Ketohexokinase (Seminavis robusta), 427 residues
Amino acid sequence: MQDDMNGNEEEKIILILGACCLDRLLTVDSYPLPDSKIKTRAYHEVGGGNGGNVATAMALLKDAPFATSSSNVKIKLLAQVGDDAVATRLVEDLTCAGVDLSLLRQEAHSTTSFTTTIVSSSSPTRTCLFTPGTCGNVPMDDIDSDNIWEGNVVHFHTDGRNPDLALALAQEATRRHIPVSVDPEKDRQLPAQDKMMELASILFLNATQMNDFFQRKHQEFSTTITQRQQTLDGLKPETANLDPAIITSAIQPSLSYLCWHGTQQLHKQVVITKGDLGAIRVTAQELVETQTAQKMELMADNVATPNSISMQVPCSIVGGTTHGLARLTVESVGVLQNADIVDTTGAGDAFIGGYLLSRILLGPDDPPQFALHLGAWVAGKKLGGPGAQSALPTARDVSNELGNTVEEMQSALHNLIGHFGGDAGEE
């Protein structure tokens, strides 16, 4: 499609495959003892599911003024719901948010949709009870490839809840040179999930849930990352506001992919969310094969950059020479200061939505760490309401609170978002 007579840019389509369900949130003063009966303090029904949450966050923000082409962005959600009142509610909410549901599958014959019951107490703990329903996932044989990729699809994102289909779409996106991002959530011990994560150009991980995956894969590849117990020579704790142990842990996924798959994993972004501490992004910039072991060290030219460091890390390359020297960039961001915390459900999905929209729409013009800061702001605003979607910010919120240009937004975010670990942003 070419620019039309009015000079509008070609429509950009962001395709999301993922779970779409209704969250039922129950707040209690304390968890009940066995055989007891207690009273809930609050009850809310809010749209949920990783895919639905990310799609909603992006759709609400897509008309924000930080991208000149934002008015030509379409967020398409590929998911399956049932034939019940829950599905009607989900469709209404997603449509109201601006999500394109032309790919939404609605299974007929009186099927039920997915629901999740979330019980939270005054202490910072939650219990989630997932009810699959009877509608099932989008089946592989119900996919019309031409229909899915119709138009200018510029990015494919999946939460990995439907690994076989997600892998098939990730492979097709890769064949079409469309970037892929994946939020695997947890190790499902499925080959399709493993391959899908390998294909991802952006991989979203949380602090701990994928540790078993990397341990399992290291055994499969018969590799070890010897740097796991090492300290970083010359690295001071205040550098990039990260403790050396945190950095050592954060670089392991990127280093692992370089060890396993070599240079094809260069420029892969691994974004690790760490709750109320903030988030860390590690990007593999270069891999040079060497004949002798090297020392882990910082690259001196970037040590002084706030919230960002560059480092050289030795690794063993599977199927290649004995040694390699990887150059990694490690960046960090904190959380929204003075956020009104009502509920943490879906904060990670909100972060992903803000982060991806910035990366996709601004592309090479995305300022350093802007996507990290925008993701932190979206996640922080989400905390102000129950469930994953009730308090997500809109394009109007961006204009009112952050400004109407990238420069204005960047300045506002710099003051609103703290450093990793909780220090306030600079005034």
